[in-house]
Specification:
mainly beta, Jelly Rolls, six-stranded antiparallel beta sheet
C-alpha cells in the first residue's frame, strides 16, 4: 500500500491496449492494498464490447468522461453520456459498447483492485495488427478472473 500522496499528469500511468481500445492504469491495486484500482479507458468508435458476462467477485464502476457508451444489463439497454455513471456489483450480467461515431472515454474503478488484470488479459486476446479476439484466450481470461459469459 502506498504511504504517500500520488499525483499523475494527463497521459501518465501504465497504458496497455485492449484491441482497438486503450486503458491507462492510474491507481494500481498495490497502491490501495487491493481495495480498488482505477483506469482511464478509451473505447474506439463502432467496436463491439465484451460478450454479455457476469463477475462473481468484482464490482465495476464506470464514470463517463466523453462520448456515449451503451450499457446492457438485466434485459435493459441504456445509453450513457458525459457525467453519467454505471455501477455493476458482483452477480449482475452486463455488457457495454461504444456504438457512436467518436471515441468514448470513461474512468473505470475495479474492486478488488487486482481485477484490473482482467482487462489486461482480455487485451492479450487481440492480435497486434487488429482483428477479432482469440476466443480461447478470451474465455480463459474470463475463467481465470471469476467471470462467466452469459448465453444470450
Amino acid at each position: 500500500m502506498t504511504s504517500s500522496a500520488m499525483f499523475l499528469e494527463p497521459g501518465e500511468g501504465r497504458t496497455f491496449p485492449v484491441g482497438a481500445d486503450r486503458a491507462t492504469a492510474k491507481v494500481e491495486a498495490d497502491a490501495t492494498g487491493d481495495a480498488f484500482a482505477l483506469a482511464e479507458y478509451e473505447a474506439a468508435p463502432g467496436v463491439p464490447g465484451p460478450p454479455l458476462h457476469v463477475h462473481r467477485i468484482i464490482t465495476e464502476t464506470f464514470y463517463i468522461l466523453d462520448g456515449e457508451v451503451e450499457f446492457r444489463s438485466g434485459g435493459k439497454t441504456q445509453k450513457l453520456g458525459r457525467g453519467s455513471l454505471a455501477f455493476v456489483p458482483p452477480g449482475v450480467e452486463h455488457t457495454f459498447a461504444n456504438n457512436g461515431g467518436a471515441v468514448a472515454r470513461w474512468i473505470g474503478i475495479f474492486t478488488p483492485g487486482r481485477y484490473i488484470a482482467l482487462i489486461e488479459e482480455i487485451g492479450k486476446a487481440f492480435p497486434a495488427g487488429g482483428g477479432a479476439p482469440d476466443e480461447a484466450v478470451l474465455m480463459k481470461a474470463f475463467a481465470d478472473w471469476d467471470t462467466e459469459v452469459v448465453p444470450e
